[in-house]
Amino acid sequence: MKITNMKNSINIAVFIIISMSLTSCFNKKTPNYRYMPNMYTSVSLETNGEHEILPNEQVNILPVEGTISRGWKPYDYENTIEGKALATAELKNPLEVTDKNLEQGKELYTIYCGVCHGDKGDGQGILVKREKFLGIPSYADKGRNITDGSIYHAMMYGLNSMGSHASQTDEKDRWQITMHVLDLKASLNGEPLWSDTQKESMMASEDEMSENKSSEEETTSEEQH
Ligand code: HEC
């Protein structure tokens, strides 16, 4: 019993001496010991730096295959003769014909297309007049059978010496431009504006709907009496 008591008090004394010697040297003004400093100061990865832990040692890596940017919708028609024919035949403008869409379409057309195709769409843009660019068709060219789909397709991929306009316009821009091109085509052909005929047919169908509605209302109000 006695021996264990002795051992205990020696242990306690040693403990006290060690802890006193440790704490007596402690100075609040100097930095303390840091164990595992990575926990305090993490390794920073520079935005454009080279780092072994990353593939190709680069921070800048390509997005995963199949990634699309926000707001971008995949375009299902291929850049082939068949793809073009299919788009020409079946691709339709999803936007409603409104003055705002038409106005914006005209503005965008003037920015992106007018230099080559001309403000009237007759293929006489300023670059053609100055003989910088040749072979630009008129939208009224019968052999081309220009439709909603073919205009959109031409903007997506370009066509021979016409470059693609897919990167500088978004989907809505392209459909707004398409509306303006169809108007230009109609004017070149001496026909009433495409947008006017669209609006008229829309109004006619709305009239029909409201007629149906009002007759429905009549019946309900009759029922109420
Ligand atoms: C650098 C001049 C240039 C610009 C800018 C340009 N085009 Fe073209 N475009 C052409 C040429 C050249 C062709 C004829 C290509 C061919 O058939 O070889 C063409 C053809 C077309 C066609 C006919 C496609 C078909 O099916 O035959 C359409 C529609 C068209 N362009 C629309 C546009 C629209 C819309 C814009 C603006 C977003 C635009 N283009 C901008 C040069 C241009």
Task: Throw out a few tags for this protein.
225 residues; mainly alpha; Cytochrome Bc1 Complex, Chain D, domain 2; 8 helices; elongated; binds heme C
SSE arrangement:
Elements: H1 2-24, H2 81-90, H3 99-112, H4 114-117, H5 126-129, H6 148-157, H7 171-188, H8 194-224
Helix pairs in contact: 2-6, 3-7, 6-7
Question: What would you say this structure looks like, in words?
Answer:
It is a single chain. By secondary structure, this protein is mainly α. It has a domain at 81-204: Cytochrome Bc1 Complex, Chain D, domain 2, CATH 1.10.760.10. It is 51% helix and 0% strand. The protein has helices spanning 2-24, 81-90, 99-112, 114-117, 126-129, 148-157, 171-188, 194-224. The N and C termini lie far apart (110 Å). Residues 112-113, 115-117, 133, 135-137, 144, 146, 150-151, 154-155, 159-162, 165, 177, 181 line the site of heme C.
